Amino acid sequence: MFTGIVEELGEITAVEQVPNAARLTVRGPVVTSDAKHGDSIAVSGVCLTVVDVFGAEFTVDVVHETLQRSRLARIAVGDRVNLERATAVGDRLGGHIMQGHVDGTGVFLSRDPDGLTRFALPEGLSRYVVEKGSIAVDGISLTVASVTNDEFSVALIPTTLELTTLGRAEPGDPVNLEVDVLAKYVEKLATPHLPGRTEHTGAGAGSKEDA
């Protein structure tokens, strides 16, 4: 589990194609300070399992399912990524409960001088996004300012712009989105009891079984 409070801005230092996956090497001095094989680290919102740690860098394998559902399929050497270690029991929940299972990719649309930032929503996700609710964008826990059927907006403070990838985003850039998991559970439980409704199902991209 994660809370969407980014610990540091990391950098991709190597991308290697391996059978049915991509192996990424990521530089992140903070998250590697106590990392070991098998630990979970969120890389721009995608929960991935540490394969190896050497100095200030770590490697992770990203399987085909995760590449399909996230923007990591387009990652390249030199790209910056948001990094967060898994939340320890007893830590403060500074953001909101996140699994690191990406539901889809949105698109950065625009940001005004006051930090109000708009993103396009992929089809089917708007039903999980509510005004003043939480959403994860590239692993950052954010509060929804407004939402329509095909886009939403958030207000970004200067610290978020300075310390995360969103400060470097350009119109048209893809972003990883994870909606509030509580909304998906509520929908699954309630749908069979609503006349004329059909159940929506789907899994996000993440680590372990990458489902």
From TrEMBL:
InterPro entries: ATP_synth_asu-like_sf, Lumazine-bd, Lumazine-bd_dom, Riboflavin_synthase-like_b-brl. Residues 1-96, 97-190 form the Lumazine-binding domain. It catalyses: 2 6,7-dimethyl-8-(1-D-ribityl)lumazine + H(+) = 5-amino-6-(D-ribitylamino)uracil + riboflavin. PANTHER family: RIBOFLAVIN SYNTHASE, RIBOFLAVIN SYNTHASE ALPHA CHAIN. Pfam families: Lum_binding. Lumazine-binding repeats lie at residues 1-96, 97-190. Keywords: Repeat, Riboflavin biosynthesis, Transferase. CDD domains: Riboflavin_synthase_like. It comes from Amycolatopsis tucumanensis. Its EC number is 2.5.1.9. This is Riboflavin synthase. Coiled coil: none annotated. Pathway: Cofactor biosynthesis; riboflavin biosynthesis; riboflavin from 2-hydroxy-3-oxobutyl phosphate and 5-amino-6-(D-ribitylamino)uracil: step 2/2. Catalyzes the dismutation of two molecules of 6,7-dimethyl-8-ribityllumazine, resulting in the formation of riboflavin and 5-amino-6-(D-ribitylamino)uracil. The keyword Repeat applies.
